[in-house]
Design a protein that fits this description.
Helix 15 packs across helix 17 and helix 16 crosses helix 17. The termini are far apart. It is built from 17 helices and 16 strands. Strand 4 and strand 5 form a beta hairpin. It is an alpha/beta fold. It has a seven-stranded mixed sheet.
């Protein structure tokens, strides 16, 4: 197999002198990062079960592998805990001591890529590195006179697919387009850099924002992660793992960090000041703090259904209710999947439909199938035929190819159709009210809907937008909205059975 090799270059005398200091083990690397970059990278975590930032640096520089994990790395770290800076630092160390290495930086946005690039440029301004650059750095590229180079990539298929390098460092992968992430897995190739064999590797650095998002998969915190993490080593550190040593005279009992710190900061050796961390803790709620600063679980701050929990809203149907009947909700898809939900409704005498208990008992997700194939599942499900099927009013529009509407196909199969019109924001409020009042329950077998309820989110970069992101979770959630609004809306009293 062809491999990348270092190019013929003429390094400067200063770079040759620096090359003699090439680290061979962790202590030397840690010392050099302090001597050359002024960084004291924490070597011991203070939170049980976490890793120290230097564990990642050591792994990335020495290309360490084990029987169960390759050289690829995933860094799950708190906001402001130095992950981008350390990515830049280990990039520079590799450029200095692995001549000819080719490294690319790919961020969740170009601005994110530029942050690591700026860290790198700032480090290269230190006097010890004067005269080492091969020409003036640009906004996208830095090269040393020993042939090492780093470039920034844009979040595009063209940019990623046209790359063949030793190392790819991906910053804030939680913001990546999934297709771009998949394409990025094929860009690295091993090769000699000077007298060092560099194993091609992809690194992912990020906070974790989303339940069932990309970081949840990469760290093994998602059902979708099966097989994903086998070739990757996961490093996790929180804001507490990079906190400075807390002064002995500071009282612990009255400190807002006490519940999480338990006095361990008295033995810390990080770089984030205690006062800064206290100020940040005071500004945010518990969910944001535990998710983005303590790395305990994905943050739900952008979740549409934050109050949805499996312990409260997921359970099997207890017993058949003779007064109950079945209804359905469908979100039609062509390139996207078609989702069908079946729910048992138990009417309550004297109560409006908004207060009737609804138990989603079955789901169907059809991908790359015809509408007729998808609808056939309803009759084959083993459940009684639903009294009516709730759809989006757009389903009444005729298909340009078949000349028939989705609603017409349903009616031809003998289904009553309800298509009450409602905007998405009040529809979401309707689902939230049911979650708050425990009138909506989901069977554990409905795994796609459960995952969608946890994953459905707003765009954190566009807080003014009221509509959630359409990234896959919306299909099952839309089917649920159509079911509920057609149950509760007064205009839904008109049903149709046309043949």
């Amino acid at each position: 197999m062809a491999t990348l090799t270092s190019r013929s270059v003429s390094p400067s005398p200063r770079l040759k002198k620096l090359a003699e200091l090439a680290p061979r083990q962790g202590d030397q690397l840690h010392w050099l990062m302090h001597a050359l970059l002024g960084l004291r990278v924490p070597r011991m975590p203070i939170v049980p079960g976490h890793q120290a930032p230097f564990d990642y640096v050591h792994h990335a520089y020495f290309n360490t592998t084990t029987q169960n994990a390759g050289s690829d790395a995933v860094v799950w770290a708190a906001r402001g805990s130095g992950k981008t800076m350390l990515g830049a630092a280990v990039t520079l160390m590799e450029m200095l001591f692995k001549p000819g290495i080719r490294i690319r930086i790919l961020g969740g946005s170009f601005e994110q890529s530029a942050r690591m690039h700026r860290y790198l440029l700032h480090m290269l301004e230190r006097p010890v590195f004067q005269g080492l650059l091969a020409g003036d750095p640009t906004q996208r590229r830095v090269a040393l006179c020993n042939g090492s180079e780093v470039q920034l990539l844009a979040q595009s298929q063209t940019s990623v697919r046209g790359t063949r390098v030793h190392k790819l460092r991906c910053d804030e992968v939680e913001e990546f387009d999934p297709d771009i992430w998949q394409a990025a897995q094929l860009v690295t190739q091993s090769g000699w850099c000077g007298d060092t064999w560099v194993t091609g590797s992809v690194e992912a650095l990020s906070t974790m924002h989303r339940p069932h998002g990309l970081m949840s998969q990469l760290t093994g915190n998602s059902e979708a992660a099966e097989g994903v993490t086998r070739a990757r080593t996961v490093f996790r550190w929180s804001a507490l793992d990079v906190i400075e040593r807390c002064p002995s005279q500071r009282a612990c009992g009255s400190c807002i960090l006490w519940r999480d710190c338990q006095g361990r900061a008295k033995d810390a050796a990080g770089f984030v000041t205690v006062d800064d961390l206290i100020a940040q803790r005071r500004r945010v709620d518990d969910d944001t703090w535990s998710g983005e600063m303590l790395c305990q679980r994905p943050s739900t701050s952008d979740s549409v259904y934050r109050r949805f929990t499996r312990s409260r809203h997921v359970r099997p149907i207890a017993a058949h209710d003779s007064q109950a009947y079945l209804v359905a909700g469908i979100d039609f898809g062509l390139r996207n999947p078609t989702v069908v939900l079946l729910a048992q409704v138990a009417p309550l005498d004297g109560e409006a439909a908004a207060h009737w208990p609804v138990h989603v008992v079955a789901e169907y997700v059809g991908r790359e199938r015809t509408l007729e194939e998808n609808l056939a599942w309803i009759d084959a499900s083993g459940w009684p035929r639903p009294r009516w099927v709730g759809i989006d009013p757009a389903g009444e529009a005729r298909n340009g190819q078949t000349g028939r509407s989705d609603a017409a196909v349903l009616r031809r199969r003998g289904h009553a159709v309800r298509a009450c019109r409602e905007e998405i924001v009040p529809g979401i409020a309707r689902v939230r009210r049911r979650l708050d009042h425990d009138t909506l329950v989901i069977d554990p077998a409905c795994t796609e809907l459960i995952t969608a309820m946890e994953s459905y989110r707003y765009d954190a970069l566009r807080p003014q937008r009221e509509a959630p992101v359409k990234d896959g979770a919306d299909h099952a959630c839309d089917a649920l909205r159509y079911l509920l609004r057609n149950l509760e809306c007064a205009s839904a009293a008109v049903e149709g059975r046309r043949w």
